[in-house]
Amino acid sequence: MESYDVNELFARIDASGSYDIDKIKRSYYLAEELHRGQKRISGEDYIIHPVAVARIVYECQLDTNSICAAFLHDTIEDCSDRVTLADIREQFGKDVADIVDGVTKLNIPFETKQEASIRNLRKMFLAMSKDLRVIFVKLADRLHNMRTLSVRTPEKQRSIALETMHVYAPIAHRLGIQRIKQELETLALSYLDPIGFQEIKKDTEKRYGESKDFLADATQKVAKGLDAYKIHYKLEGRVKSIYSIYKKMYNQNKSFDEIYDFYALRIIVDTELDCYTVLGIIHEMFNSVPGRFKDYISTPKQNLYRSLHTTVIGTGGIPFEVQIRTWEMHEVAEYGLAAHWKYKSGEQANQALDEKLHWIRSLLETDADGNDPDEFLQALKIDLFDDEIFVFTPKGDVVNLPAGSTPIDFAYAIHSAVGNKMVGAKVNGNIVPIDTVLQTGQIVEVLTNPNSKGPSRDWLSCVRSSEARNKIRMFFKREMRAENIELGKQAVERELRRYGRRFTDAQRDQIMASLAPRMGFAEADDLYNSIGFGGMDTVKLGTKLKEEFNRVVSPELPEQKPKQPALISEQSEREERKARKSSESVIVDNVEGCAVKFAKCCSPLPGDRIIGFITKGYGISIHKYDCVNVQNGLKRPEERDRWVTASWTDRAEKHALGGFEAFLNVFATYTPNIIAELTVALRDMKVEITSLSTKESGDTITMTFGVRCGDTGHLASIISALRKNDAVRDVTRGNV
Ligand code: MN
């Protein structure tokens, strides 16, 4: 139980000699007077809370004004009828008043809604950019509230613990205050997953009990070694925190027994040189685990953390981690930036603060000049959440995605229907390729078209979130079963052909029918389906496929060598009639007249540089050379030989009159007549409109027209005609 004895705290502060104890006492007396009669939920006098917060702030080695602010931090909110910020400013100065004000403003639940959370994070950072001490006092406030969370309702416990885990602990980590960070995480975990927490706690105690002597033994050995070199040092032995173990077990899917940095020794020495000397001594005494040495002295972590880390094998083959650091590094590690206020006062302290703020800014600066507060905030957010991003919908709602996500992830995060009808995306108002990697702070808009046939299989390779991946798979699974089965059959055939013996469709089906139950599927079609939508890879069938093949297909039959063009024309005979017109427009690999179709992702027009792709059974699809799918596809070695050169024939334009479909994204200032005006403009040019979708956002309207046109020149003239309308801001060529 922690002490709420304020006199004991005063005595400690006074003894340290570097504080204005009278001012600190005055702030306590005022807080005590103001909170008198108020109770905490536990029934205790309210004043114990500010006292505890002041103690934590003092222990973080913050300055006089921070301790005063800690005592007063809840007065403005809880005693507004008796005290104002002006009163505090008058009695304790601007610094104290500003910190109290900053802390008060942060008294908003962060986790109620994502949007609110990000807005409050911003406020928090704004406060921070004014004075870091606000954050320290706020963290101390949260730490005491977490220590006393058991009296709250289960709902409150959960929401406060979540907020602590998602907002406060990462901030403590960023500021390098390991002590507060670890305690916050451990306390939060005990409420968020009490069962997991207790399990690990029990395991930890058991393991520690079983090898109680291990740490003592290792400590003793190390001490002996260091003494021989006459190095001045301090040794600390410890076991890994419950939350670090928990995180390792869950993130890296390890069992408790696989945590091999369970034990750690910390050696604190006087100079940097000593650190390296100690490292040498340790490596001489014990065998080190390869790949576990880290020199955070020469390359400090972003939060200023510096130390040498190594893992060595101790008695009984038990590994333990050794951290070696100087006293200065130790203080920074424990208290983060707060350590820099120590021993500094007045002008010197302000200068130190400025230096640190400057450091944080430069640390977080992107390529922007850093003067723009929004840029600064954006950089801060990215740094704080380096494995996730926050982007905005046009309405200002926040969507949280894993880092590296694309507009496709965003679309599926909104709704699977949005993802399935997605045809393009805008970031900050500009059309971008749908596989663009999103950054925190961007405004993302999804362009949809009700006629869209659904997602492309290639999307699976550029999405980051499992949500998007699952929804895309689900789409193929549900809506494309027939096609999936067909694709699955072709994939299996390709695999079987590698075995070099001829086989019939019936044999193929027989093989798969006997494999299906072994792979957990009811029947062959389910297995084909799964292969078709990408849920199952033929590679996974591995030797089982080969075994079945050898069982079903007799080895006497000679190999049938498929010839590429013949193969294509055989497979696409059905489609031939439909494709004739386009076949006459394009030459593929110098072979005229093979079945081609134009890819919906880029809708190539005569005049565009094009390339062909041998599809799995639907002839050759023609893409624009600069289509995203092409650029991605060419990177995949397994598909490289399916890309074939293609060019337009002389007849292309003639055949294409009214034959090619192109898509135009028109961005315009909204007027009631805009759609009508543009439709009329197109009709006047005798351009057939094949589809139209619109989307309004604020004063902007985005229209996607599908139009029939001849070639790129024709399209250019259509674009310039549309641009003549005053309301039109931009027209770009887009996708379906
Ligand atoms: Mn408080």
The main β sheet shows up as:
6 strands, mixed
Terminal CA distance: 65 Å
> How many structural domains in the coordinates?
6
- Taking all residues together, what is the mean pLDDT? 79
The coarse silhouette is: globular
Give the CATH class of the largest domain: Mainly Alpha
What compounds sit in this structure? manganese (II) ion
Number of strands: 21
Count of helices? 32
Assigned CATH architecture of the largest domain: Orthogonal Bundle
Name the CATH homologous superfamily of the largest domain.
Hypothetical protein af1432
Which structural class do you get from the secondary structure elements? alpha+beta
Uncertain spans: 122-129, 342-346, 361-385, 557-581
Helix % is: 40-55%
Query: Radius of gyration, Cα only, in angstroms?
Result: 34 Å
In CATH, the topology of the largest domain is named: Hypothetical protein af1432
Strand content: 15-25%
Break the fold down into its secondary structure elements and pairings.
Layout: H1 6-16, H2 21-35, H3 48-59, H4 64-72, H5 75-78, H6 85-92, H7 94-105, H8 114-130, H9 132-147, H10 154-174, H11 178-192, H12 194-210, H13 212-228, E1 233-239, H14 242-251, E2 263-269, H15 272-285, E3 287-288, E4 294-295, E5 308-313, E6 319-326, H16 327-335, H17 346-364, H18 373-384, E7 388-392, E8 398-402, H19 407-414, H20 416-420, E9 422-427, E10 430-432, E11 444-448, H21 459-462, H22 466-479, H23 481-497, H24 505-518, H25 524-533, H26 538-552, H27 564-571, H28 576-583, E12 586-588, E13 591-592, E14 596-598, E15 610-614, E16 620-624, H29 628-634, E17 643-648, H30 652-656, E18 660-669, H31 674-684, E19 689-697, E20 700-709, H32 712-723, E21 728-734
Parallel strand pairs: 2-6, 14-16
Antiparallel strand pairs: 1-2, 3-5, 4-5, 5-6, 7-8, 9-10, 9-11, 12-13, 12-17, 15-16, 15-17, 18-20, 18-21, 19-20
Helix pairs in contact: 2-4, 3-4, 3-9, 4-7, 4-9, 6-7, 7-9, 8-9, 8-18, 9-10, 9-11, 10-11, 11-12, 12-14, 19-22, 23-25, 23-26, 24-25, 24-26
Manganese (II) ion binds next to loops.
